[in-house]
Amino acid sequence: MLAAVYIMDESRPWLGEVKGMDVKELQIHWYEGSYQTSWGPMKGKYSLSSVHRESLLLWGFHLTEKTNHLKRETQQELQRLYLETDEKLTLQRQRRCDD
């Protein structure tokens, strides 16, 4: 299963294949690619890591069959979810500063 993860980094999106999960975390094998290019599994010692389940934005989607690109609908949904999450986190930070 492919999943997209929220990470506060400008090099978005962050995608990978879920290799395992428990109540709090997932094991992700990260993919390399971009909105405009094809995607494929990363290689090397940093290609597998654990992330909190709370950071999941979208899961269960597929890449295009021939070129391994994000489908247009998936790309648009990811961009919307990243923006929405950025805005929520900004509001939370502002509220903390106001207190």
Short description:
By secondary structure, this protein is α+β, with helices and mostly antiparallel strands. The chain contains one helix and six strands. Strands 1, 2, 3, 4, 5 and 6 form a six-stranded antiparallel beta sheet that branches.
What structural keywords apply?
27% helix, six-stranded antiparallel sheet, single chain, 6 strands, globular, alpha+beta, 99 residues
Written description of the protein model:
The protein is α+β, with helices and mostly antiparallel strands and about 100 residues long. It has one domain. The chain is about 25% helix and about 35% strand. Strands 1, 2, 3, 4, 5 and 6 form a 6-stranded antiparallel β-sheet that branches. A hairpin with a 7-residue loop joins strand 3 (about 25-30) and strand 4. It starts with a strand and ends with a helix.
